[in-house]
Write a structure and sequence with these properties.
Elements (H helix, E strand, L loop, with lengths): L10 H24 L17 H7 L4 E3 L3 E3 L3 E2 L5 E7 L9 E8 L6 E6 L7 E7 L5 E9 L4 E10 L9
Parallel strand pairs: 1-9, 3-9
Antiparallel strand pairs: 2-4, 4-7, 5-6, 5-8, 8-9
Length: 168
């Protein structure tokens, strides 16, 4: 105690930095285990899960990534009600209207979770809902345009308490 002023260390900053470091380290460790590294909705991502219903619907058509945006939390505490949002900008005057958007699940008992059909072309696409997930998996959104082309996005979700255990 020489009388020199002591530096005050703010506990909030230290904890926040440590927490971020631990989250990043945990994500790096768990990414290969759950196959999350290449399936984060990155444009051009070729790692689409082999879902039978999705492959039948695609019928060999190519998927384009980048315009359709699927937003689901990376970690869901309860698989019974996981918030989901789908958005897609539609350029004016291009004739690229959306006919249908389908949402597929990798491990749910029923792979096609939702189908949104647009009889009248919407000025913009914004869908918010909740979905049931039967555990940790990848979720795929596919938008079919009026010309038959497919836009896609996919994301991975870690579910701590699974739903769909009764086969629904």
């Amino acid at each position: 105690m020489n009388g020199a002023p002591r530096k005050r260390v703010r506990a909030g900053r230290v904890r926040r930095g440590r927490r971020r470091w631990l989250e990043a380290a945990g994500a790096l460790v768990l990414a290969p285990v759950f196959g999350l590294a290449s399936a984060q909705g990155v444009p051009g991502s070729p790692d689409v899960p082999g879902i039978r219903a999705l492959e039948e619907y695609r019928a060999g058509r190519a998927l384009r990534f980048g315009r359709l945006k699927l937003t689901v939390p990376r970690i869901a505490d309860n698989g019974n009600a996981v918030p989901m949002r789908i958005t897609m900008p539609i350029p004016a005057g291009t004739g690229a209207t959306v006919r249908v958007i389908r949402l597929y699940s990798e491990t749910n008992p029923v792979a096609l979770m939702a189908q949104f059909e647009f009889v009248v072309p919407p000025p913009r696409v914004e869908i918010e809902s909740r979905i049931r997930l039967a555990g940790t998996q990848r979720v795929v959104a596919i938008a079919e345009l009026a010309d038959g082309s497919l836009e896609a996005d996919l994301t991975s979700v870690i579910v701590t308490l699974a739903a769909c255990l009764d086969g629904t």
